[in-house]
Amino acid sequence: MVPVKKVLNKSNEPLTCSVVSDEFIAASEKAFDCRFNGVSEFYPWELPTDELLNDFSLGVIVGGSGTGKSTLLKQFGREQVPIWETDKAIVSHFDSPDDAINKLSAVGLNTVPNWYKPYQVLSNGEKFRADLARKVKNGAVIDEFTSVVDRTVAKAASVALSRYIKKQILKNIVVSTCHHDIVDWLQPDWVINTDTGHLYDGFFLSDQKSISKYIKQSVVSGKCLKTITI
Description:
This protein has helices at residues 23-32, 69-73, 97-106, 124-135, 151-168, 183-186, 208-220; strands at 4-7, 15-18, 39-42, 58-62, 141-142, 173-177, 190-193, 198-201. The chain is of the alpha/beta class. The protein has one domain: Rossmann fold (3-Layer(aba) Sandwich). Helix 3 packs across helix 4 (124-135). The longest helix is centred in the last third of the chain and has 18 residues, at 151-168. It is globular, with a radius of gyration of 20 Å. Residues 208-230 have low confidence and may be disordered.
């Protein structure tokens, strides 16, 4: 168990939004015996002042839906949304051919024939990995990481991303996710859990043999993803 480094505080100033009351709200108030004044409030977590959050390779914000992950993530930067041209192959959207090969391979999109397809015909999982390949760089922020892929692909993508960040010595990349199961596989420098408000200094598998075995299966041999590795 990784010890808690710090406990976050809730902001004293809520985020608010308002809506116009109508017959639908009135009906739901009656059905559930509640009252709504038209204003919703949310008290976000405050980002702590900690040197751990200033110089790092990979950080993870994890927690359930509606716990403030995206609000915290915005304090690290703005997420890039890749633009894909409909008449160009996904491999043709990078800074150079070497950049394309390295990044697409790094995120586990190793079925080369799919590199020659336009983005709009890819599966959801392939789109996730193609977007990830375009996003990963120094200072990148990535919301809803692995939310659209199955757990096997999520683990493989997490291992591949972690390896690429370390190999390229990238800095200050932050991802948010509602899936706790991928945190160990990402091997981040720190984790913020928005369910509890805890900041952890690092988060690693207790059994390093497990991760080594998984890397060998999913990244080196291609056994898990049934892909080739370049």
